[in-house]
Amino acid sequence: MTGVTLTSAGLDPRRRRILFRCWHRGIREMDLVFGQFAESEIATLSEAELDEFETIMAEEDNDLVRWIMGTWPVPERFQTPMFARLAAYKPDFDKPLRTPE
């Protein structure tokens, strides 16, 4: 079961792949943060922003949780507008989940 609500039909292959990966992180909290952020932003991100987003996504979930929650300082390499947007995004943890059709 995922929380995907955005159809990927209108997205290019790269954006579809990123959206899928955002909802299949491994840690449910990161699924919600990355998945809902991607659903909200993926269609409008530039190629450079997609590059940076994929770089952030390549990090370990346990590290990302600590950086996003503020329990560990964010490494200098991620002190960027994209990381700030992601960390500031507040997912709706009460949003009903549905399975893709």
TrEMBL record:
It comes from the Bacteria. It holds the Pfam family Sdh5. One of its GO terms (biological process) is tricarboxylic acid cycle. Gene3D superfamilies: Flavinator of succinate dehydrogenase. Keywords: Chaperone. Transmembrane segments: none annotated. Belongs to the SdhE FAD assembly factor family. This is FAD assembly factor SdhE. It comes from Rhizobium vallis.
